[in-house]
Design brief:
The protein has three helices and seven strands, in the order E-H-E-E-E-E-H-E-H-E. It is globular, with a radius of gyration of 13 Å. The chain has one domain. 20% of the residues lie in helices and 35% in strands. Strand 3 and strand 4 form a beta hairpin. By secondary structure, it is an alpha+beta fold.
Length: 105
């Protein structure tokens, strides 16, 4: 179960967004997605039970701004993958099913 980390304000700033699209970039450690929401790019990284996100209008800046937004204590020991739907539910994001690319680019 994902629990908000100490970056509560950053996490709350990303919650309840409408995403234009989401694409899985890497399905192995670390898992990585890139999402578009209006003029912003949201980069998501999942590794060893930690969910990191960065946001900016430019992709390279989003990668530089990645912060841990949630932790799953039960998945920190082993590198257990996460489904995008779990992240989407945790962040309360809206995304049309057709706008999710689940295969790595």
């Amino acid at each position: 179960m994902l629990l908000v980390s100490s970056n509560i304000a950053f996490c709350n700033g990303l919650k309840s967004r409408v995403l234009d699209s989401a694409s899985l970039l890497r399905d192995r450690t670390p898992q990585e997605w890139v999402c578009y929401s209006g003029n912003h790019i949201i980069v998501i990284r999942w590794q060893q039970g930690m969910l990191g996100m960065g946001v900016s209008e430019r992709e390279h800046e989003a990668y530089q701004e990645i912060k841990i937004v949630a932790i799953d204590q039960q998945r920190t020991t082993f590198d257990t993958p996460i489904q995008f739907s779990e992240i989407q539910t945790f962040m309360d994001w809206e995304l049309d099913e057709d706008d999710l690319l689940e295969y790595p680019l």
